[in-house]
């Protein structure tokens, strides 16, 4: 950072200025005073109507998780707050209220884990009504806690707004599901996805980071069931598998285009690629080329599951560590999944949603997928199928929510266009779909959606769990595919992001005030990606509406080098810490407060007006520098280059104004000029250090009872 701290150094060596007392506790006291004042004057309301009939920025946000708010989310909110405070000081009205993800999956896990007795019946079954009530209460507690954290950082929003989770919120989903289904935008499919076994939900690979999993990879010999009968001896394919548990679920053997040979050895015939290292290792007595057509006739016997595995050819270039043949498990590896689609292979999963092996894995059923590597290796070895093995770390995607490793597995999913929207959960807005019990097709239409909506509005969301499907559906309804009249309800919930987007779309389309409105979105890029297109599409499809002259600013919040200690996450030090680290942040806030405190001392006696015409060349050059600074800093705020703005402001404040102040203290004739400059500079600092700026402002204007520096305008410039 371009900030040399000369002013502070000068203070230390010359000791010519008095410093105000400084400690973390006095700073906290001052922060609390400012927060109280902002609450008393209801600053968010003032900023919402700063300029009557002026342009309004209406901020929309994706629902914020209520557990473990990450530094990224906090930094993003600080960046947005800097932007909004700046915009407000250029005369715009800013309107902002929070969206909370009350359906955070960790609420469900905590409630299921802790209040076991209060949410269960005597027979151990979950009492849905009590369970959902407990979740609701816990979620609201967490919202209180998180609100307090954002408030301490001075982030302005209408914090009293609470998310609505009442019947209307849910019933809108029922209506939307019916309509979207009728219009062909909603479908249920079995699709292979990256899946977190801890959160039990699909994971977006774009949001996850990479980790590793310990596994055993192996070359093995697979006995042939069909093909190459001409040798008159036992024939094996030499095939590679990257992980043992995945081998358990393999259903075919893949071969890359190339030349293949049969090697006649003591104990049988081995088929492999001509470039395979096993050609030298096995020391065959004779070699004969095998044609691709011959290989296409071949099927192998899976040594553990007994599955008949065909040979398929692929030109997949991915993960070329293996030679020749490799087994494929379409359900559990993305690459294999696409090979299977190409060759119409069966896609069957061997794990359940919790990552436990299912009945297809025989004796290993119920074991966790990553606990069976050695067991399978031993089994293959004991029965003579293993040729060579290697322990290795395979790359895996980690869940962005909980950090657990993910697996790739098929699951039944509801999709809104390409967005997966169903979850296997209890806490959330139920997946309002009813299935035919004979053909398993969804009994769904716009009319049925509206009927369910009305039923929910009348009887509450919990009625969905209590009532039989027949009581929820319109009378006389039967499955349009098979005329069956027996039904069952879908289990699970819709994703929170879908539930919120439907409701946001509804609220946006119902708003009356559309004059002078600009819809503003400032969120991390990945949040925008998974939320905004869905919201826009829902507005368009359900309400034939759109955002109003939207401004969408994707941001990449700074990642602090070291994690910021919690005691630093408040006030101006907290805000600055995310951009320049806690120790430098503290130094800046301390110096800033000290400098303005000294300016107040120098200027408090001066009551003469500032006379611009009489300034000397030195003062003139200071004013020019201030004008340039103002232009630069405002354009940095405009484009969210906040770190740069901090550097630029520090440079001027401590390297230009600091020395000028020292000189003024000695000569004592520059007070009116200092007062003017300091007010302008304070305004420029205000968006990023609102606590300090507000406090000094109130000291300068003690008589202004309802006042705030944020009701002022940014400096207009001296030289214009
Ligand atoms: Zn997870
Ligand atoms: Zn049916």
Question: How is this structure best described in words?
Answer:
The structure is a single chain. The chain has 720 residues and is of the alpha/beta class. The protein folds into three domains: 156 residues, Isoleucyl-tRNA Synthetase, Domain 1; 183 residues, HUPs (Rossmann fold, 3-Layer(aba) Sandwich); 194 residues, Alpha-Beta Complex (Isoleucyl-tRNA Synthetase, domain 2), CATH 3.90.740.10. Helix content is 42%, strand content 19%. The protein contains 24 helices and 24 strands. It has a six-stranded mixed β-barrel with strand order 7-8-15-9-14-13. A hairpin with a 4-residue loop joins strand 5 and strand 6. Helix 17 packs across helix 18. The N terminus is likely disordered. Bound molecules: zinc ion (ZN) (2 copies). The site of one zinc ion (ZN) has 8 residues, from loops.
Short structural description:
The chain is an alpha/beta fold. The chain is 42% helix and 19% strand. The protein is globular and about 110 Å long.
User: Which secondary-structure class do the elements indicate?
Assistant: alpha/beta
- Distinct helical segment count: 24
What is the name of the CATH class of the largest domain? Alpha Beta
- What is the distance, rounded to the nearest whole angstrom, between the alpha carbons of the first and last residues? 30 Å
Low-confidence stretches: 1-16
Q: CATH superfamily assignment of the largest domain?
A: Valyl/Leucyl/Isoleucyl-tRNA synthetase, editing domain
Strand order of the largest sheet: 7-8-15-9-14-13
Bound molecule kinds, no repeats: zinc ion
- Based on Cα principal axes, name the global outline: globular
Known CATH architecture of the largest domain: Alpha-Beta Complex
Work out the radius of gyration: 34 Å
Share of helix, binned: 40-55%
């Amino acid at each position: 950072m371009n900030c040399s701290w000369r002013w502070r150094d000068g203070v230390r060596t010359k000791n010519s200025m008095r410093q105000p007392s400084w400690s973390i506790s006095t700073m906290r006291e001052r922060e609390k005073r400012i927060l109280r004042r902002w609450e008393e004057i209801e600053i968010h309301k003032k900023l919402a109507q700063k300029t009557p009939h002026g342009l309004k920025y209406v901020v929309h946000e994706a629902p914020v998780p209520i557990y473990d708010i990450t530094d990224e989310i906090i930094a993003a909110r600080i960046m947005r707050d800097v932007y909004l405070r700046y915009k407000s000081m250029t005369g715009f009205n800013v309107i902002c209220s929070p969206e909370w993800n009350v359906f955070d999956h960790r609420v469900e896990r905590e409630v299921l884990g802790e209040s076991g007795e209060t949410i269960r019946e005597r027979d151990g079954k979950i009492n849905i009504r009590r369970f959902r009530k407990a979740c609701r209460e816990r979620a609201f507690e967490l919202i209180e806690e998180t609100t307090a954290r954002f408030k301490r950082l001075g982030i302005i929003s209408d914090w009293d707004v609470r998310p609505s989770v009442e019947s209307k919120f849910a019933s809108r989903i029922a209506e939307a599901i019916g309509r979207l289904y009728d219009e062909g935008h909603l479908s249920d499919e079995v699709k292979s996805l990256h899946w977190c076994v801890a959160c039990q939900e699909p994971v977006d690979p774009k949001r996850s980071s990479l980790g590793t999993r310990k596994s055993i990879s192996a070359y093995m010999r697979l006995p042939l069931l069909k093909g190459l009968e001409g040798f008159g001896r036992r024939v094996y394919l030499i095939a590679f598998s990257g992980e043992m548990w995945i081998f358990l679920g393999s259903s075919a053997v893949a071969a890359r285009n190339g030349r293949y040979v049969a090697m006649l050895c003591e104990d049988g015939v081995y088929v492999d690629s001509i470039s395979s290292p096993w050609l030298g290792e096995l020391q065959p007595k004779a070699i004969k080329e095998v044609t691709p057509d011959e290989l296409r006739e071949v099927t192998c016997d899976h040594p553990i599951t007994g599955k008949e595995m065909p040979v398929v050819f692929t030109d997949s270039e991915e993960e070329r560590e293996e030679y020749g043949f490799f087994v494929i498990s379409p359900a559990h590896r993305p690459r294999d999944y696409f090979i299977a689609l190409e060759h119409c292979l069966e896609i069957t999963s061997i794990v359940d949603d919790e990552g436990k092996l299912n009945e297809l894995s025989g004796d290993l059923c119920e074991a966790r997928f990553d606990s069976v590597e050695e067991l399978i290796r031993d089994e293959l070895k004991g029965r003579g199928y293993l040729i060579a093995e290697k322990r290795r770390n395979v790359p895996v995607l980690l869940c962005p929510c909980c950090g657990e490793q993910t697996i790739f597995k098929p699951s039944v999913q509801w999709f809104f266009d390409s967005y997966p929207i169903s979850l296997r959960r209890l806490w959330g807005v139920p997946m309002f779909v009813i299935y035919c019990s004979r053909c398993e097709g969804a009994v769904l239409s716009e009319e049925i959606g509206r009927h369910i909506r009305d039923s929910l509005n009348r009887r509450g969301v919990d009625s969905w769990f209590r009532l039989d499907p027949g009581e929820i559906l319109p009378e006389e309804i039967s499955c349009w595919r098979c005329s069956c009249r027996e039904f069952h309800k879908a289990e699970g919930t819709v994703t929170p992001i879908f539930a919120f987007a439907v409701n946001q779309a509804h609220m946006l389309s119902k708003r009356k005030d559309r004059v002078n409105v600009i819809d503003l979105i400032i969120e991390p890029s990945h949040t925008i990606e998974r939320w905004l297109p869905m919201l826009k599409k829902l507005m368009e499809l359900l309400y034939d509406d759109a955002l109003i002259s939207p401004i969408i600013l994707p941001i990449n919040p700074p990642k602090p080098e070291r994690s910021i200690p919690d005691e630093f996450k408040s006030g101006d030090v907290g805000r600055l810490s995310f951009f320049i680290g806690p120790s430098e942040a503290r130094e800046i806030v301390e110096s800033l407060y000290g400098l303005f405190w000294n300016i107040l001392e120098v200027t408090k006696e001066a009551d003469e007006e500032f006379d611009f015409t009489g300034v000397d060349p030195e003062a003139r050059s200071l004013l020019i520098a201030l004008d340039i600074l103002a232009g630069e800093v405002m354009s940095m705020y405009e484009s969210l280059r906040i770190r740069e703005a901090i550097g630029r402001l520090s440079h001027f404040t401590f390297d230009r104004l600091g020395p000028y102040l020292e000189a003024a203290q000695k000569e004592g004739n520059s007070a009116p000029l200092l007062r003017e400059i300091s007010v302008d500079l304070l305004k420029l600092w205000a968006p990023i250090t609102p606590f300090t700026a507000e406090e000094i402002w109130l000291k300068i204007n003690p008589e202004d009872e309802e006042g705030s520096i944020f009701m002022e305008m940014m400096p207009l410039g001296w030289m214009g």
